[in-house]
């Protein structure tokens, strides 16, 4: 019997979204087949990894990853430059955690200043994230979008409870937008519809179906992502075609496996390798399920994930 | 691919004799197509029909074991391409590779690592399942000796003989025949000799080729030689080859019922960097591998790979659950603290683990919420004040504890008022939101 390669024919295509300016601008998405199956389609843009930085010292990160940035993290500008120049980051994701009312409750004026300083200091594209406080993000991200006007950033995350002001600001200042819902394909679809109904082009959207760490719900995220990809490609569902974000670092670097010392759990082996593997394997799982853009924290985990991507394309 | 009723009908005697209990041969054929009746009910079918129908009803991916005994790993038998369509059934076996020309100490050490690799996660025992011994010495006596040594030191592990040399393989198989090793290395050149060994000892054989065209030709040849338990090695090296070949193999088997590739798959993912190796192993596990061969099995790496495998192989329709009951942690006296949570495995194991860490003997009442986490169960209306109150009354806890204080998860602090109303005489205490704060919380309660 001679062998015929079983190819799938797809009707739809993942939208391609670019961000950043000039030579350093990046594009994600654009494929017309399932992840890494280039024997049956085109995958023009490999997945991109952005390094996460914050607007304040990351006291709540475990030492394994906090110590790497200890000399630069007091100032988001030095932190951003370190990632770009020393770690060769291709993109950065600035999370404005200090705006959270339970943290420093930093003002929108401060936010605007930080964003302008960081943008002035870097050449690579920037993702700007709120503190995930629904009400506060509604004003913080508006200020951020304005401060970053003209820089073609990705702003997020717009959620069901706060998307209106954020969408309007992203539209006014020409940014791309992350739409986040919680682990449910129908919620993801519905939010994309609500956002496009405001006149925001679906070609400028990124879907975040909510990440989860290895061992803590990874299988839910994995299957929701696979189902989104299949709906976009096989059923040509236009609301399911934006590129997918995997916000990996923030879910990984708090679970017990990345925090507990070897003396507490000798059967789990060395802590540093364990934490790095936890972030890298979570990222690999997301890539296989369909993620186009990853946000990560540990340089070694980023390197391993990049090597994996290079082997996959 | 299952046959339709009409296709089956064409193979029947068409006499409508009714001996099968059906009014016509067609009615019988329709019932057969829906697996409602067995072919044996018709006394008059020809031998040829039996064979054709038998083959058509065989599962698209052959199922058999790697290794023997309780720790044997079932391979194959998968029915879907995506876990959300049903589930993945038989978790991929993990194997570590060692060269036969390593020193006896190294061989023993590696075998001991495998034997001690078992970890408990969310109530499941997970381990490195197999050892692959690579024929590198070019000395068949050395190979047999190394194989024997490793097999003895890892008595529960499955053994993979990574050896393309027929004489060396024969000697090694004889040394450990009862362990039913997987013979890994039948190529086009060695097919006859290795098939012969596999048949003699009734052991599975892995077919190694470059690409799927050659691989299908090879498995057909091996089947022609009488070997049925075949494992596939397509020669995939890079992650890209792994994901592409494995996807093509799984699709051919499931969608085309292409028999030459209807077997479990083996991938070798050895890399210089151990973390990269773990990452490539994850690609293979997610995309249809049944055996993944690694070069090293550090504890941190095992934990991460075991967890990924466990996640992808859970049933997407039914969350992992534990039994509803009051669990004693330590040796609680009637005065010991009483806590409540849901029966989602992950929740139970995280919470009970932290209660153990606290060293404060306690009771943890676990309520059936269909395997949902605390907040999910609350949002789904399964972990409400009324239901918790009913549960506390029904479970008979009032005879086990002297006090009347119930500690609830911080995430559902909102329930405390309603619960105090519904559970007369009880004091409701709101515990921490996150389980890792439980030890401090419990210690502060007991001083
Ligand atoms: C995975 C998930 C699901 C999975 C279910 C997984 C499962 N088996 O439970 C699925 C996809 C099926 C699901 C469905 C729904 N979900 Co849901 N889901 C989640 C998610 C992402 C994670 C839940 C989880 O696994 N947590 C991990 C476990 C271990 O946490 P836990 O049980 O709470 O235990 C921790 C603590 O509570 C504490 N603890 C536990 N017990 C005890 C006991 C004591 C005494 C103490 C002191 C502490 C303690 O320790 C643990 C570790 O710290 C959360 C969001 C999030 N990130 O939390 C939403 C979330 C829980 N879901 C939510 C909702 C609304 C739903 C749905 C109703 C609708 C929907 N969005 O789809 C459905 C309902 C399901 C149904 N059958 O009807 C909401 C709840 C909103 C709210 N605040 O009330 C959440 C918070 C998301 C959100 N913000 O919208 N969900
Ligand atoms: S017993 Fe066989 S031949 Fe007779 S009616 Fe049934 S199927 Fe037809």
Q: Helical stretch count of chain B?
A: 16
Any idea what the shape of chain B is? Answer: flat
The total count of helices of chain A amounts to 10
**Compute the gyration radius of chain A: what is it?**
19 Å
Portion of residues within helices of chain B? 25-40%
Walk me through the structure.
The complex is a heterodimer of chains A (313) and B (447). Chain A is α/β, with parallel strands linked by helices. Chain A has helices at residues 63-66, 76-86, 108-121, 134-147, 163-172, 185-197, 218-233, 248-252, 271-289, 299-312; strands at residues 16-19, 26-29, 48-54, 91-95, 126-129, 154-158, 176-180, 205-208, 245-247, 293-296. The model of chain A has no long low-confidence stretch (mean pLDDT 97). With 447 residues, chain B is α/β, with parallel strands linked by helices. Chain B folds into 3 domains: 5-57, 3-methyladenine DNA Glycosylase II, Chain A, domain 3, CATH 1.10.15; 64-312, Dihydropteroate synthase-like (TIM Barrel, Alpha-Beta Barrel), CATH 3.20.20; 325-446, Rossmann fold (3-Layer(aba) Sandwich). Chain B contains 16 helices and 17 strands. Chain B has helices at 5-11, 25-33, 47-57, 104-115, 140-153, 166-175, 191-201, 212-224, 239-255, 274-286, 299-312, 345-358, 374-379, 385-394, 416-422, 438-446, and strands spanning 64-66, 73-75, 93-99, 119-121, 124-126, 130-134, 158-162, 182-186, 205-208, 230-233, 266-268, 291-294, 325-329, 338-342, 362-367, 405-408, 427-430. In chain B, helix 1 packs across helix 2 (25-33), helix 6 packs parallel to helix 7 and helix 10 (274-286) packs parallel to helix 11 (299-312). The longest helix of chain B is centred in the middle third of the chain and has 17 residues, at 239-255. The chains are: A alpha/beta (313), B alpha/beta (447). Iron/sulfur cluster binds next to helix 2 of chain B. Residues 12-13, 15-20, 22, 25, 28, 42, 44 of chain B line the site of iron/sulfur cluster (SF4).
